[in-house]
Each structure stands twice: as structure tokens, then as C-alpha cells.
Amino acid sequence: MNKLYPLKFNPIILEKIWGGKKLHTLLNKEISSDQAGESWEISGVKENISVVSEGFLCGNNLQELIEIYMGDLVGDKVFEKYGYEFPLLIKFIDASDKLSIQVHPDDLLAAERHGTFGKTEMWYVIQADDGAEITVGFNRKVTREEYLDHLNGKTLEKILNTEKTAEGDVFFLPSGRLHAIGAGILLAEIQQTSDVTYRVYDYDRQDKTGKLRELHTDMALDAIDFNHYDNYKTSYQKKSDEQIDLVNCAYFHTGLYEISKAFELDYFSKDSFVIFICVDGKIRFEYQDGKFDLTKGETILVPAVIKNLFLTPFVKSRLLEVYIP
């Protein structure tokens, strides 16, 4: 069997009512649409499974690769836990208009209702227009009854927390937290493998046929966390050429590297695949059997059997690193 190598996949582009042009203009995706909302970079979601774009495995999908390589690809413990299901979904999202206010169920509720995982996720803001905002959580503790009064009275936004946002901001969104991406924001999203979303409010927007978009207000009620939290934005210390911890949760670990010089990474203690998302610049990666380049807007999956990488930036670059803890 030929040796596993770092894998790039064909992006899966989804048009959205709120999508725009930044996936093309800022992340170099080959798209002509003016409403490209999402680029699914690595996906094991059944209807949208990622397909390898280069090397001898070109044309194979992620599901097939896990069936063949198992723990060598994803890590033995990851394979033990998730089997043939890839545990993460990696996306870029371009919101030229605001998204609906929505919430995701936790593992228990999602398994009971949909036979899937729940959805805990995080956002890393790549670019934001002046004044752009993200809605996340409540601005005070509310009761179920208060929430329903505001929802039915179309004043939901009065009790929601909004945050001005800029490049480099990080938001962690555990299942149950109401949220919405505002207009003018391009971000990377790292989430559990799940496409279950409950839309609770959509500003009475109509689709192309003039229909109001479907809401899931009743289903959302059991999923919502009505508590108020002090900090909805994740704070972190910027450092050069070493890992910056962004998010540690049961489902994924995400770090950030701001790279200005060559350095080495070793994963001998990790029993997991590693995903790199280039959010700025261009970097050369070298490993025992070869090398590859990653430029802004590209994502790569490094198999668990590759334990050592040497990174050289062409220019000052930023890289998100994701693995299963």
C-alpha cells in the first residue's frame, strides 16, 4: 500500500441567500457566484463528503479513506471513538448579509431526534467590514417565557448580546447558545460533524420564490441555554512562532500560529489527525516523505501517522491547527 500523505480536498461550495464574493476575492476559491456563502473544506457529512484533489488518492472520498486506513489516518483513539465517521466539519463562511438567529442541539438531543452528533463549534474571524457585528448568547439571564414573548413580538434582538468584531476575533459556541453571523464577515468555522441547525428568527426574509424561510422555533426551545455569560468572545495573547491556544473542548482543540520564521512541529504525543487552515500568507511544509505548500484559503489534513513537520513561511503567515484532544 502506498504511504499516506497530507491530503487536500476539493472545496464544496454552497450558495446561500446571505452569501457574497469574498470566498473568491479574499480566499481565491474558483467561484463565479455572487452568493457563495460556504466553502466546506473537509467534510464527512453524508450528502457532502470531501473528495481528495491531488496525489495518488485523488478522486477518493474521506469516507473511503477512513475505511481503508482507519487509525493510520485519523488516530487509533479517534477511530475507536468515532469509527468510520469523520468527527469534524471545517468551513469558510462569507456573510455579505446577516444570517438567521439559530441554535444547535447537544449530542443527547441530536441523537434522540436526528440520529446524529450535536453541534459545538467555533469561529475565527478572517476579515470583517467596519462596524460588523456577531450575535452570541443573551445580554442577561432570561426565562423561557420572556424569550417566547420577545420571539412572538419580533423583539428577540433586544435580549440578545451583540459584539463588534474584527480580524482575529474568536468565538466559541457550545451547543445551546443562540448565535448569528452579521453582515460583512468572513470566517473559518470548526465544528462537530453535524448539519443540524434550528433557525429561530430570520427577519421575515423571503427566498427566491418569495417564500419565508422555514423556522424551527418549537424544536429550538429544548435546545436553548437561557443563561447569561460574562465573556462571549475568547481572549488570547498574541505571540510569534509558537502555538497560541484558542479553544480546548471535548470535541476539538484549536491553536493559532503566527509564523515569521522556520520551525518544527512534532505530534509524537498526539493520537489524532491534524488539520491546518491557512488564514493568511503562504507556508511550505516538509515531512519525511515529501513537501507541500499551503496558501491563504487552503486547508489540509495531515494523517495521524505523520508525526513530524518542518514549516517555512514564504511571508509572515497565520495558520489554524485543529486536532482531536
CATH domain topology of the largest domain: Jelly Rolls
Main sheet record = 7 strands, antiparallel
The stretches of 5 or more residues where confidence is low (pLDDT under 50) are none
CATH C-level label of the largest domain = Mainly Beta
Q: Percent of residues in beta strands?
A: 35-45%
The helix/strand series, from N terminus to C terminus, equals EHEEEHHHEEHEEHEEEEEHEEEEEEEEEE
Computed Rg? 20 Å
Q: What is the approximate shape?
A: globular
Structural class: mainly beta
List the total number of helices.
7
User: What is the first-to-last residue Cα distance?
Assistant: 28 Å
CATH superfamily of the largest domain: Jelly Rolls
**pLDDT averaged over residues:** 95
CATH architecture of the largest domain: Sandwich
Largest sheet: spatial strand order: 1-2-5-12-7-10-14
Number of domains: 2
- Total beta-strand segments: 23
| Share of helical residues | 10-25%
Can you characterise this structure?
This protein has helices at 22-25, 62-69, 71-74, 76-82, 107-114, 144-152, 217-221, and strands spanning 12-20, 36-42, 44-45, 48-49, 88-95, 101-103, 121-128, 133-138, 160-164, 170-173, 179-181, 185-192, 198-201, 233-234, 244-248, 253-259, 263-266, 274-280, 282-287, 290-295, 299-302, 308-313, 317-323. It has 325 residues and is mainly beta. It is built from seven helices and 23 strands. The model has no long low-confidence stretch (mean pLDDT 95). β19 and β20 form a beta hairpin. The longest helix has 9 residues, at 144-152. The protein folds into two domains: 12-234, Jelly Rolls; 244-323, Jelly Rolls (Sandwich). It is globular. Helix content is 14%, strand content 38%. The strands form six sheets. Strands 1-2-5-12-7-10-14 form a seven-stranded antiparallel beta sheet, with no helix packed on it.
